[in-house]
Amino acid sequence: MIRLDKILAHSGYGSRKEVKELIRKGFVMVNGEIITDDDFKVDEINDEITIADSTIKYEKNIYIMLNKPDGYISATYDNHDPIVLDLIEGYEKRNLFPVGRLDKDTVGLLLITNDGDLAHRMLSPKKHVDKTYYLKFEGELTLDKISKFQEGIILDDGYLCMPASYNRINNNEGILTIKEGKYHQVKRMLEALDCKVTYLKRISFGPLTLDENLQEGEYRFLTDEELKLIL
Ligand code: URA
User: Is 37 a catalytic residue?
Assistant: First the structure.
């Protein structure tokens, strides 16, 4: 059983305060009966909730894969730059937020959800969730330097990174998988090896892989198969 006002708020009918108002004013029916008590609890699977003649399909949590474009901030608010949620239609009412951050100039896979528990699980430093990046860089990554990824790179602030795996594509491109998410981590790892990242794209996050059909700025909801992998 779940509170009626909670279902309505999660389904995009407004803030908790706004939906309580709708309930009190008699706009909401449960199984054909007008309910004016905002404390009212419903069975989210079996009860039929209607509001202004439309039936509500309860979607507790939303899971979106976004191919983040350059120039967007991974946050729920910014007073200067566009934010990733600007790209998601109707986001205002759904309490969405990005799971972790990609730098403003980083592109690629960003998970957007309103599921705080999932975000916690995927971001917890203890879980060591893999993040894989395709990168282009300036400078020379010798074989000796590449072996440092496995040994653990020491960042500018003295932090010793966990072993990471690097797959060379050519002299200035590669694929790097890390298990942490320190601030600017990939760029700083490359800096520690006297190289400079010029392009960074996240291609996987935990068990999720960026959908190649998504152009930068496009998004889609996770499939049932993907949900099984992360929930
Ligand atoms: N590492 C970085 O340096 N930037 C990102 O956006 C993600 C990982």
Answer: no
Query: Among positive and negative, which fits the CA dihedral 163, 167, 173, 179?
Result: negative
* pLDDT (0 to 100) of residue 35: 93
Q: Please name the residue that has the structure tokens 């305060």.
A: 17
| Residues 148-184 as b or e (16 or more Cβ within 10 Å = b) | bbeeebebeeeeebeebebeeeeebebbbbbeebeeb
68 lines ligand 1 (CB under 6 A): no
Q: Both tokens of residue 107?
A: 């592109």
Q: How far is the CA of 224 from the centre of ligand 1 (A)?
A: 28
Buried/exposed 57-70: b ≥16 CB within 10 Å, e otherwise = eeeeebbbbbbbbe
Taking the chain (231 residues) in consecutive chunks of 10 residues, what is each chunk's mean pLDDT?
86 87 91 89 81 74 95 96 92 83 98 94 93 98 97 97 98 97 97 98 98 97 94 90
* AA letter at 181: G
CB 109 near ligand 1, within 6 Å? no
Domains in the chain with CATH codes: 2-56 (3.10.290.10), 63-125+208-230 (3.30.70.580), 131-205 (3.30.70.1560)
